[in-house]
Amino acid sequence: MKEILAQIKPSQKEQQHCARSTVTFLSKLTKALLARKLGAKAILGGSGAKGTWLAGSHDIDIFVIFDFKRYAQKSDQLSDVLEPVLKKSFPSQKITRLHGSRDYFQLVFQKLNFEVVPILNITKAEDAVNITDVSPLHSVWVNQHTKGLKEEVLLAKQFCKAQGLYGAESYINGFSGYVLEILIAHYGSFLKLLQASWKWSVKEVIDAGKHYAQKDALFELNQSKLQSPLIVIDPVDKSRNAAAALSMDKFLLMKKKAKEYLAKPGLEFFVPKEMTPAALKKEAEQKRLNGIIIIAAPLSGKKDVVGVKLMKVFEFLQEKLTLFSVKESGWEWEQKKEALLYFFLEKRELPQYEIQAGPPTAMKEFVKDFTRKHKDTYIEKGRIMAKVKREQYQLAGVVKALLKEKYVKERVAKVSKVMVV
Q1: Residues 6 or more apart whose Cβ sits within 8 Å of residue 391
Q2: What would the pLDDT profile of 135-145 be if each residue is shown by its tens digit?
Q3: For the chain, what is the radius of gyration of the CA atoms?
Q4: Structure pTM?
């Protein structure tokens, strides 16, 4: 574990750079907030406030907390109030306003990515007007319950990141950083989390805040909060399932990878798969499989929306390539970069002809229509059948045709490269 931690824990130099830049950022923003007498203050949030950020992860969350009494009835205007303050504080930076349940802002400052979120100052979750208002309470809880466990959180995050399990975005549907922090606080270590997770049953309830008796949560929570296979009660908001975004696929993958690691621990579980065309080409050749590697430029827009569109393209292609016997597939995308999709397949071509089922022979008019359209027909088990020549039957041709389909063109800006190996 020491070897892994040495790689994933931010170095002293990295910590100092982030700390200095954050202090400067907060100082500039606080000065502008005070000058305008807005009754607001800026604080560090997210993994930075909790000391649970991974090396190389330079996304810093800043919360601008507005006085509850003054702004509770104007909650939907907080973003409008904050925007000119940010522009005044950082006149040289490009500030992007992003739409969410409450609009928030992104900018780059001293080579670090800052996300600035306006929230209301609350002391208990029930007072929240917007879900983001609760965020500072998360930081307080995590810091209180993970003393001496920060390294365990880092191990859990890196393990999930390497296995494609990290992130609650709707194009990932995995474990958020906050959920992993709750799980580490609940189980007490990364190893204990794995030992428990491979035995999880569907609808397992994790109640680290001890809000309910073990089964009561399933009856007391709103049914809309119980759609995920794992129920993680938010310790600061008993009405919320913190793991609501988790999909069944990612739940099962976590169980599988936990079991594999416990059977044979290794550093490779913490190293993300190398997703480059050259590495994937080599892997396909080593596995003696055919490979399709696609590089696509995403559309512009909000990260979550763009990511979902890329995911839909991946799922569309995977379904359409089923007849080629897909043995392994995956995709990767980082904001402001192109997406990479890959498929490893057993077959390189399909039979030139396919069998198409027609109507039952008793439906004479429909049978006539069918036989007019298809020359090579025959009857099998009371149904008219046709032997139809495929327009494309070789892998390269099929992929080329699929990428020209409207469904794909509407969801990516451009397909810049296709490799068939």
Answers
A1: 401
A2: 999 999 999 99
A3: 26
A4: 0.88
